[in-house]
Amino acid sequence: MSRSRHKARPSGPPLRGWRGGPRAFGVGLALVAMMALVVLWAGSRSGSTPGPERDEKAPAARAGKPFLDDERTVFAQYGGSESCRKCHEDQYHAWNTSHHGLAERPVEPASDRVAFDPGRSFRHGTQTTQLRWINGVAEVTSLGLSGKPEAQAVARVIGNDPLRQFLVRFPGGRHQALEASYDPRSNAWFNVYGSEDRRPGEWGHWTGRGMNWNNMCAGCHNTRVRKNYDAAGDRYHTTMAEPTVGCEACHGPLLAHNAWQQQFGDSGRKDPTVSKLTRARLVDNCGFCHARRGELTGDFKPGDDFLDHMRLTIVDGSETYYPDGQVREEDYEYTAFLGSRMSFRAVHCLDCHNPHSAKIILPGNWLCLRCHNGSRTNAPLIEPVSHSRHKVFGYDTNGVLLISDLMAYQPGQIQETGGECVNCHMPQTVYMQRHWRHDHGFTIPDPLLTKQAGIPNACNRCHQDKDTDWALKYCDEWYGAKMDRPSRHRTQAIVAARKGEPGAQIELRGLLATNDIPYWRAVAAGLLESWAGEPPVRDALLLGLSDTNALVRTECVRALEQPAGADVPDVVNALRRKLDDPVRGVRVAAAWALGSGLDPSSRAGTELRHSLALNADQPAGQMQQGVFALARGDPQTAAGHYRKAVEWDPNSAGIRHDYAVVLSQLNRPQEAIEQLQAACRLEPRNAEFQYKLALGWNELGQTGKTIECLQTAIRLDPGHARAWYNLGLALNSSGRTEEALQALTRAESADGADPRSPYARATILARLGRLAEARRAAQRALEIEPRFEPARQMLRTLP
Q1: How far is it, in rounded angstroms, from Cα 459 to Cα 463?
Q2: Are 391 and 290 in contact (CB under 8 A)?
Q3: Given pLDDT bands bounded at 50, 70 and 90, which one contains residue 419?
Q4: Is 607 helix (H, G, I), strand (E, B) or coil?
Q5: Cβ-contact 550, 581 below 8 angstroms
Q6: How many percent of the chain have pLDDT more than 90?
Q7: d(Cα 646, Cα 657) in Å, to the nearest integer?
C-alpha cells in the first residue's frame, strides 16, 4: 500500500523552521514569519533495476544532486531473492507469499483479472470510476488531470491483502497510485480516500504529488530504492536493487555471500560475509518502513542507525499522535513501539513476528504468555481472565462454544475474543478504509484520560454503547490505585503542554531529566520549545544535549532552535558542538538550527543541503529550500521556492501564509495580501491568518480593513493577545480612543507578560491628559519588565 497518509495535508511530518524577523507595519504592527515546515508523512531479480521501467536518461542525470554516484557499484552487490531459494527453501516460500514478498508486483491475470472482468463501476463522492479488462490490460477510467474521465492502463500492483492499490505511468518518470482500490476479500472496489471528493490539482488527488509512487511508495515497497529526482527537469530516474521487498531488503546485499557459499559452503568455516544485526539495528531495520518519518539521505540499508537517515515524527504539539502515545493519524508501528515499556525492556520485532512470513509466531494470548508467565523478572505474571475481568472464549470451526479457560487451548482449535491481551493493550484503528492495524505502544486503557482529554480507551472502543463514566467506574473498582500510574501523569503533562499551560514546563523538565524511556524524554524536550527562552528550560535543554540517546539530543537541538541568536551565546556554542555529533540526524538538526551561522560547506552543512535537495520534489521540500534561502539572506530565491510550493499544493493555507511572509519582506504587500486572502478562504476559522491579513492591509494604509480583520481574529480567538494589542493601536489611529483603551486592556489580560500593552495604554492616556492613569499604566509595564526603557522614560517626563 502507498505510504501516502491519504489526507489532504500536510504533506509530511512537521519540521520546525527559522522564524523570519519582524517587519514594521505602520502604527506598531509587525508581521512575524512563523514558518512551521514539513518534510515529508516481480521483474529482474538482480542488478540496477529501474522502478518500474528503465529511463535511459538516468545515467546522464547522475551529476545532478541528490543523485548518488555509487549506484552501479551498490546494486552490483545484490544477488536477488531468487538466488536465496536453493539453500533456504522454507524461508523463501514463507517470504514469497507474505505481505513483504507481495509488496509490489506486475499485473498478473491469474490474480488480478477477477477485479476487472467483468467490467464494472463504482460511485464515490460526485465521481464515478470504471474498471475493465481489455486486450489483456487492466484499465481504470477516472477523473484525470484534464478534469475529465481518462482511461489509464494499470502498470503495477501495490499490496495484496486486505487491499490492493494500482500504479499508472505518468510523464517525467513518474508512477501515480490510483485512488480506486480493490478489496480481494469481498471482491469490491472502493475509494481509498473514503468520503473525500478530491479533485485534480489538489496535492492529495491521485494525480498529485501526494500520491506519487517515486516519493511516497517506492522506498518501502521495493529493495534499496534510489529515488533520483532531477529538480532541474522535475523528473524522476528511479532505480532499485530488486522490485518488491526482497530478502536483501532486510539482510542487505548478498552477492558476496552467494559466491562464498558456492566456493566454501561445505568447508565448515564461518562465513565472513554475514554479520548478525544487533537488537537495536534489527528494530531500526523494520522501522525504516514501519515509521512515520522524513528522509535525510534517501539511502538507508540494513545495519544502519535509523537516525542517521531519518527524522522521526513523535508525539508533539500537533494531533498526529494522542498525548499518551497512541496512534491517531496514519503513523505506523515503530514510533509507538519506541515509547513502550516492551521496547525499553529490549523486546524486538522478531520476538513476536516470524521474520520471513511476518506473521505472529503464536496465536492469541499464547504469544504474550511466552514472557508474562512468571518466568522473567522484567515481565510481570499475567493471568488473562483474572487480569482483564473478561473471559477468553473458545469456539470450534462451526461456532460452537468449547471453553472459557485459556489453558485448555489447543493450537488450531479456537479463536480468542474478549479477554485477548491485544484487544486492550494493542487497540486497532482502520486506515485506508480496509486496513485494521494494531497500535504497538502497548498502552494501558485509562477512561480518566478520555474524560479529561478525549484520548480513546480500549474499554469504550469495544463497548460503544457505554459512556466514559461507565468504563471509569469499572476501572476504579477493579484496579483502584494501580490506575494512578506514571504514564497517566506523563500524559496529563503533555496535555497541559499542548494547551500552553504555564506550569506544564515544570512537569516536562522533570520528564526530560528523569524518565527512564528515552522516547518520552525526547517528547518532553520537543514540547519544551514553547518555553525555551526561559533560563531554567534552556538549561534543561542544554543538559539534554548530552543525553546518551540520539533522539533526545535531536529534540533538544530543535527545541533550542528559536532562541539560538547572538544574545544567547551558550546556546549557539552548544549547537555548534552538535555539528560533530556521531549521529547524522543530530548534526542536520543542529545545522538547521544555526541558520545563517552555519558554514554550508562543512560536513553538517553538506548533509543538510543534501537532505534539502532530496526532498525538493514536494511542496514541503520547496518550503524548506525557501526557509534556507531566507536564512542565508536571499529572500528573492526564497520567494521562488514558495511560489513553486503554492503551485504544487494550491489548497494549503499554511504554505500561502508563509509565502505571504516572504512577499512582505520583499516589499510586495499586494501580493502578500492575495496569498493571505486565499489562506483565509481555505481556513476561514484560522485567527492567525486573519491577524496577518490585517497587518497586510495596514501596510497598504487600509485602516478600515485592518480593523475589520483584527476584529475577525479576536472573534475567532478571544485570547489572541497580539490581535487585541494591534486592534488597540489601529482604533487609536482612527480616533476611537475609548475602544482602543478597552482593546489594550484585553491584550494585557490575554498576555500579562507583555509590557507593550500597558505602555501603549499609558501613551494614549497621557495624550488625553489623564496623567494619573497614564502613570499607573507605565508603572504596570515596569512591573512586568523592569528593564522596559520606554515606560521608564515616560515616567521621567510625566508631570
Answers
A1: 6
A2: no
A3: confident
A4: helix
A5: yes
A6: 81
A7: 10
- What would the mean pLDDT of 70-89 be, rounded to a whole number? 94
Cα separation, 597 vs 789, whole angstroms: 30
CA distance 433 to 182: 11
pLDDT in the model for residue 30? 32
How distant is the alpha carbon of residue 708 from its chain centre?
36
**Do the beta carbons of residue 512 and residue 482 sit within 8 Å?**
no
Q: What is the pLDDT of residue 565?
A: 52
**pLDDT tens sequence across 237-277:** 999 999 999 999 999 999 999 999 999 999 989 999 998 89
Give the start-end residues of each E strand in 87-204.
104-106, 120-124, 127-134, 137-143, 149-153, 156-158, 165-170, 174-177, 180-183, 188-191
d(CA 624, CA 726): 30
Picking from 511, 467, 471, the residue whose alpha carbon sits closest to that of residue 491 is: 511
Q: Is residue 435 part of a domain?
A: no
Between 577 and 398, residue with greater pLDDT: 577
Cell numbers at residue 754, please? 507583555
350: DSSP letter: G
Instruction: Classify residue 74: in a domain, yes or no.
Output: yes
Residues 445, 482: contact at Cβ < 8 Å?
A: no
**Nearest partner of 564 among 574, 554, 552, judged by Cα:** 574
Q: Contact 788/780 with Cβ under 8 angstroms?
A: no
Rounded Cα distance between 506 and 521, Å, is 13
User: Within a domain: residue 84?
Assistant: yes
The pTM (predicted TM-score) of the whole model is 0.88
Distance CA 421, CA 365 (A): 6
> So what's the pLDDT on residue 25?
29
Distance CA 287, CA 168 (A): 28
Q: Which of 556, 552, 531 is nearest to 541 (CA)?
A: 556
Helix (H/G/I), strand (E/B), else coil: 650: coil
Residue ranges making up the domain that contains 135? 49-258
**Whole-number Å distance between alpha carbons of 786 and 795:** 13
DSSP state string for 26-83: TTTEEE----EEE-------SSSEESSS--TTHHHHTTSTT--TTHHHHHTT---GGG
Render pLDDT for 23-74 as a digit per residue (tens, 0 to 9): 222 233 332 222 222 222 223 333 444 444 444 343 333 434 566 668 889 9
Q: What percent helix, strand, coil does the chain show, rounded to 5?
A: 45, 15, 40
Is residue 587 within 8 A of residue 607, CB to CB? The reply is yes
- Residue 579's identity, in one-letter code, is L
Among 524, 531, 532, CA closest to 549: 524
Residues sharing a CB contact under 8 Å with residue 794, sequence separation 6 or more, in sequence order: 759, 762, 763, 766, 774, 778
- Give me the helices (H) in 239-333, please: 247-251, 255-264, 279-287
Place of cell 472573534: 715
CA 689 to chain centre: 23
**Which residue type sits at 369?**
L
Domain total for the chain?
A: 1
